[in-house]
Amino acid sequence: MAARLTKNGKKVGRPNGTGRLRTPEHADRICEMLEQGRTLRQIAKELGFTQPQISQWGSGSGDQPRDEMFINRYARSMLSRWEQMAEELVEISDEIAPVDVNGHVDTGWVQQQRLRSDNRKWLLSKALPKKYGDKVTTEVTGDPSAPLLTRIELVAVPPRARIEDSKAIDHEPEE
To answer: Which helix (H) or strand (E) holds 27?
Structure first.
């Protein structure tokens, strides 16, 4: 039931999508589409919902009761979607570049493929940083038998000269 307006202009009824989203049929369809590699925006458009409605249901946030079974299935479907994206990287890199009649490679196509690949790599590094993120290590070298030393040192510094009435005050005695 869509929200309708009363004589004084106030909305009555449920907003569009409320209550109709959380059905077992929609849960199955959302997870299937995620596993096929579809985006949340595409899924929301096809099912007639908003992207935040699907995200909130999948994360268990919002004012609706939590559906633990769907939350777990949604998380597995999202993981499957990310893994599928990683496989697409291999397919993109294995594609053979088209050549023109003179045998020259289409550089525009190469740049497009590079962009597609770089975008997927960046998304994977943010979505699954443990698996696809950059590995950053810190290495400390030195004598293994000697402990690392940290020293804080206080050093006296002469005060700066102050300017009063356009005259500089010297800190050295006048002769």
So the answer is: helix 24-35
